[in-house]
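Listing S7. Sequence submitted for prediction.
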Amino acid sequence: MNKMPSKSESEKMLKWLNKNRRTLLSLYRNQYVAYNDHCVIAHSENLRDVLDIATASGEMFAIYLVPRRTASIQILPIHFRTVARHDWLPNYHVRLKHKDLEISTTMLVDSGAEISLISLKVGQDLGYSLADAESTLLAETIGGTVEYVLRNVEMTIDGHSFIAPVAWLQSITGAEQLLLGREVVFDRFNIEFRQADEQIRFTWREELS
């Protein structure tokens, strides 16, 4: 298991990811990549293979699931080509834990999402499964409805651990991007977006005066 990057290490890694995001999209679509602040350490559609190779390297790393589609900003099944001149996405490193699997991964901070979200593939690779006779829920999106189930996931952000609900999609929508939504997360932290500096600031609310 790799250790969580420090805040300064995380900022360097996220800057590298943003700078090289289009290259990753062209080379590794629908694959997990383990990366740090200067290179890709491992890549595969199999999460555990990537974790094994990256851990064996001894390098600090985080995990990013590269979306299937390129040159678009994606909101569930709806795609918008970006017209913004500032090509930056508000990604942040979050540690997710489920049973024996614990990863430092990259999530898109989305103030428009009520709860956090993981795709069908990511949930399966993390080891989630449906309980016997478990019913799926329906969520309304711009493009229609999607099926999902709720899972409570242990998250760690900047050294602070907590449990937050996550919507695990039950159909393939093309939404490989992991979303960090408002429920619990935005109650635990004050979050400041600094687009001009390409930074996000998370401040744990108990630290505020």
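Caption to Listing S7: primary sequence and predicted structure tokens for the chain studied. The mean pLDDT is 86. The CA atoms of residues 7 and 158 lie 7 Å apart.
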